[in-house]
Amino acid sequence: MNNETTKTEQLIQIYKEDSVKENLKALMHQMKKTSFFVPAIFPDTPEVLELKQQMKERPGQQIKLPKGVSPIPAVLNNQKGDKFLPVYSSPEQIPQEPRFDLLMNMPFHACCSLAMDARLQTQGMVLNPFTDNLSFKKELLEAVLAEGAAPAAAKQVKLTSQQYQVMMRQKAEFHDFPLRAFREGSDFIYRLSDEGGTVVDEVYRQAYEKKELYPYQESDFDVMALNIRENLLLVRVDLPKPEEKTQLCRRIYITLQDEQKVQYFTIERGKKKKERYLGGVDAEGKHIAYGEAPVESAEIQRILDLTEQRDGTS
Fold it and tell me: Computed from CA positions of residues 309, 95, 127, 76, in that sequence, does the dihedral angle turn out positive or negative?
């Protein structure tokens, strides 16, 4: 992730929290300076099958496409049956299944032009469809193409300290923390179990680029590890109480089963003060909603029920 991508992902969160016209303009301006990933497949022809075999035999080497063969962008359908071109700000946003033949790294204007291609028959573009899920219709994309590249001196959105802290906390809770849990697996979870707040503070502190605005310390995080069964470890992480009227976590639960299966659950505050939701993040970084959270005394049992259901044991 380069600096432009980081800025884009920050402005995505700002727009999601407050979808006013000014925030949309700022996001579109920043996207014009950013490259995105577009999954694509090759047509199923004998030439392509031979090409795929070469790619397996010569990984990392440049391979020339057969004449007349070009990648076909993957297109998603929404619940209404409308087609949208999916674009992703980073490879981590792309689900591991189904597998795609390649990822095209394209500037935003090229993505807009592709979404406008009549042959794809799309209604527009969808940004990070499995996480942020921001849709842009063709009318907006036409305006973007008409405006051309973003002027260097265009006015940028300035975040208040509170907006920045909310955005970075969301980044820690819904991206950085689960990413480390899934990538590092048992090593990270056992270290979290042993060192407690030190590890949580490390995760949150690293999420904040502006270190002077980091508001927490190790004592703000409380960690409790429970050996539920011989093959199941559950770690509960209590977080500073979220005062802002936005999606932030009250608690995080991480389970480790059979030394390798990791699951990540969240107790979240909604935009209204008394709203409490049970959610989670899967290994592909997709947010999962389980509905209203149970009372605190019943949270662990609900987490265990979900763990068993997803394990296929009940």
Answer: negative
Which residue type occupies 100?
Answer: F
**CA distance readout (Å), 119 to 42, 43, 125, 278, 299:** 16, 15, 14, 41, 50
Q: Is the pTM of this model over 0.90?
A: no
Q: How far is CA 82 from CA 89, 120, 124, 270, 303, in A?
A: 22, 11, 9, 29, 35
Q: Per residue in 150-191, pLDDT tens? A: 544 444 555 677 777 888 888 899 888 999 999 999 999 999
So what's the pLDDT on residue 152? Answer: 45
- For 80, the 3-state DSSP assignment is coil
Residue located via tokens 């016209």: 21
d(CA 195, CA 222): 11
Query: What three-state secondary structure class fits 6?
Result: helix
Q: What residues does 161 pair with on adjacent strands?
A: none
